[in-house]
Amino acid sequence: MNAEKRRQILERLRENNPHPETELNFSSPFELLVAVTLSAQATDVSVNKATDKLFPVANTPQAIWDLGVDGLKEYIKTIGLFNSKAENVNKLCRILLDKHEGEVPESREALEALPGVGRKTANVVLNTAFGWPTIAVDTHIFRVSNRTKFAMGKDVVAVEQKLEKVVPKEFKVDVHHWLILHGRYTCLARKPRCGSCMIEDLCEFKDKVYPEE
């Protein structure tokens, strides 16, 4: 895919959604960090159902630490892998209290040092909480980038590196959200909705799927 076609795609996505936001509910960098950590192999909808009950009770590192692992599990037990996630969130709260005065660090290295926080989670927090032009690649972005030929790569790191290279600076803060939402609602895994896709004519996917006439 050439640079002009990529720009047209990004301009359409921006025109359709000028100020994209995550679908995770949060009101502070810490709430976002917890929500993204819980969202691994889980839907944003399921995470929001849990955090909508958790955050009114405990939404600071100290408050969640005070709940303890078992107390936290009661709030997040509807989310997949909740046992290990409760352990990780509990530990990261302790680290934030001990090393960062209870604040979420605006540092990739410090974020990735937290239990349960990998590169993708760090990228989401840096982008969404702090406005960094980082691009977190999840399954939706990986699929859309490869399927459309926008930024092809064999793994998420390769796709991230390609996106960093080919996305113009003016789009970098928002491209993460645009591609996720496009993958979540239009460019679906099993049956993409090509007939109602705003970038269908620019997409280089050869096996486009259309509804039956």
CATH topology of the largest domain: Endonuclease III, domain 1
Count of extended strands: 0
User: Over all CA atoms, what is the radius of gyration?
Assistant: 18 Å
Assign a percent range to the helix content: 55-70%
Structural class: mainly alpha
The CATH C-level name of the largest domain is Mainly Alpha
- DSSP summary: helix tally: 10
Biggest sheet layout? none
Instruction: Provide the succession of SSEs.
Output: HHHHHHHHHH
Protein topology:
Elements: H1 3-16, H2 29-38, H3 44-54, H4 61-76, H5 82-99, H6 108-112, H7 119-128, H8 139-148, H9 156-166, H10 172-185
Can you describe this structure?
The protein is mainly α and 213 residues long. Helix 2 packs antiparallel against helix 7 (119-128), helix 4 packs antiparallel against helix 5 and helix 8 crosses helix 10. The model has no long low-confidence stretch (mean pLDDT 94). The chain folds into two domains: 3-20 and 135-196, Helix-hairpin-Helix base-excision DNA repair enzymes (C-terminal) (Endonuclease Iii, domain 2, Orthogonal Bundle), CATH 1.10.1670.10; 29-128, Endonuclease III, domain 1 (Orthogonal Bundle), CATH 1.10.340.30. It has helices at residues 3-16, 29-38, 44-54, 61-76, 82-99, 108-112, 119-128, 139-148, 156-166, 172-185. The radius of gyration is 18 Å and the shape is elongated. The two termini are 30 Å apart. Pfam families: EndIII_4Fe-2S, HHH, HhH-GPD. It catalyses: 2'-deoxyribonucleotide-(2'-deoxyribose 5'-phosphate)-2'-deoxyribonucleotide-DNA = a 3'-end 2'-deoxyribonucleotide-(2,3-dehydro-2,3-deoxyribose 5'-phosphate)-DNA + a 5'-end 5'-phospho-2'-deoxyribonucleoside-DNA + H(+). InterPro entries: DNA_glycosylase, Endonuclease-III-like_CS2, Endonuclease3_FeS-loop_motif, Endouclease-III_FeS-bd_BS, HhH-GPD_domain, HhH_base_excis_C, HhH_motif, Nth.
